[in-house]
Every structure is written in C-alpha cells, then in structure tokens.
Amino acid sequence: MTDSEIRYQSLLHKLQQRGCRLTSHRLALARLLSISEGHPNASQLYETLRTQFPTISLATIYKTLTLLKEEGEVLEIDLHSDSHYDGNKPYPHPHLICSRCGAILDGDSVRSLTALNQEIEQTYGFHISRYQLVFYGVCQSCLQAERSA
Amino acid sequence: MTDSEIRYQSLLHKLQQRGCRLTSHRLALARLLSISEGHPNASQLYETLRTQFPTISLATIYKTLTLLKEEGEVLEIDLHSDSHYDGNKPYPHPHLICSRCGAILDGDSVRSLTALNQEIEQTYGFHISRYQLVFYGVCQSCLQAERSA
DNA sequence: TTCTTTTTGGATAATCATTCTCTAAACATG
DNA sequence: CATGTTTAGAGAATGATTATCCAAAAAGAA
Ligand SMILES: [Mn+2]
Ligand SMILES: [Mn+2]
Ligand SMILES: [Zn+2]
Ligand SMILES: [Zn+2]
Question: What integer pLDDT is reported at residue A35 of this predicted model?
C-alpha cells in the first residue's frame, strides 16, 4: 500500500466515522488531496475535479475541506489572497513560498522548531495549541537557475 | 520625545519623502498607528478615526496603509479573516494570538529564531526575504484567570 | 493674483474568496 | 412501494479588499 493510499483510506475513514455520505464528489476530492504533492487551493482542486465531474460545485469543495479540517486530516494554510491545503501532513509545519516560481514547499525536518516553541511558552507563559509559519523568498531550484544563467 | 512620537515622525517623514500630501486624515492615521499598542485591523482603525473625522473613508485607510507598508513603516499580519497592522515594529516578528480574549501579542525576544532561519536556509537552500509566524493558544493572563477561578 | 494644467486624495462601485441558505436527492423505516 | 427525515450541493449572499473616477489641491503660465 502506497503512502497516498494510506492517506486516502484515512480520509475516508474519518468521513465515515462522522457519518458522512461518501458521494463520488467527496471520494474524488479525498483522492485528489491524498495524491497531491503540492498545496492546492480550493479553485485549483475545483478545476482539476471539474474535468471528471462537470457538475461538482466549489461550495462542495469548501464544505468537504472544512469537514476534513475538523477531523484533523487536512491542514489549512492561510495566505494573503486565499487558503491552500495540505492533505498529506495535516499537522502544523513550516512552508517555504518562492516568489519566483510560486512553489509552496514543505519545511519540516528542522530541529530548532521545538526549541522555539518551548522558548515561546516559557518566555511569555503562553500555551500554544497550534502555529503557522511561512517563509517567503527564493527556492533552491530558482537560485540555481539564476546562477547558471 | 516619547517612543510613539519618534514613530509618528518616522511615518510622516517617509510619506513626505515619497511626495505624498499630508492631509489631516493621513496625519490622524499615522498618529493612531504610532500610539496603538495592539494590532488593529482596517475596520478598527476606521471606526476609531471616524469619531473625529466623520468623512474619512475605509479606502483611504487601506491606501495609506499600503503606502506605509511599501515604505517599510508598517507590518501587515495576514490572518484568516482579515489583516492586522503593527506600526511600531515594522519588521517580521512572531505574534501570539489568544483564542480566549482575542489579544494579539508581540512575541519578539526569542533567541531561537535566528537559529531557525539559518537552519531553513541551510537545509533547503532557500533564500529567506521575510517570514510570518503566528502562534495560536491561550495567553498568560487568561491562564492565570482560569487557575484562580 | 488669476486662469489653466496636472496631479492625486478619497468616496463609491466592483471584485473575488468564502460562507449561508434552501431545494432536491438520498437514505431509513414500515 | 410509500412516507418521513437527513444532508449534499447549487446558487445567492457576505464582507474584506481593490479599482475606478471625480473633485479638490498643487503647480505653472501670464
Ligand atoms: Mn505542507
Ligand atoms: Mn507586533
Ligand atoms: Zn522557485
Ligand atoms: Zn487571553
């Protein structure tokens, strides 16, 4: 069983547990989220699904995303113009956004994050329940392309 | 000269440098930003100013905020529903948002932030130009109020 | 100063992501 | 199959933000 299939089953399981009807639209969205490497927004999900399901509505995308968010199976990333979604790593983790190519990259695998969280809790007596960390700049491949040009 | 007056003069200076007209509306907004301890959003600024300047428009607030953002004198904090603004610390710094009382607190004075930035640049070969870090949770005073209750 | 030309502040209208509402379809039960 | 209940999802509404455009202010000519 591949990673994305495990993810897909997990999404379905949570929807079922909640007693939601597993319609073809919802199944297709869950699959798309589980196979998406990037971090699509609602419109991108909509446009992709519309080719196979011409009658699907944007509101259905939003409502199902909200369900999956509430079940902790999808992470919402609030950006300036809209929200993007991560269906593979539904826990808080840093994201790197390239201002050249627009890519939204995962920035987990940083050790110093736990230290930062601890320092915040200690310094400010603040009890953290969740965080959102976004870095804006230029990604590795864009930097390399620039250098070799 | 108080801190907020220094800040006020700095805002005015940048608007002048840019060749902007220093209207009463703009002066009032600059002053309000410089004396605000919290992190108001556009509507809050609007409502506050409207008592003294009944003809001011929300669009004027937004346009002046954009000017000051471009001049690096105001930091915009993108949150889920709207943007909030910091006219006193216009450089990126962490914010702590309390889900009980709604306060948006400054979370500068954390040493581990530079380590995190360095780790991101090294691990991912990403060139950071700016970041936004928001912690959600419960603030110190709300925790204390809860304990003593 | 007075008239003309140019700039731009800011009120109003438009936009667009997101949410609300309500109908029609799916489900359960007898 | 009939009848009552739930809910998916299409279309309408909302609300923060942005674009447009007119009037007022500045600049320049005479
Ligand atoms: Mn991610
Ligand atoms: Mn701040
Ligand atoms: Zn890039
Ligand atoms: Zn609080």
Answer: 93
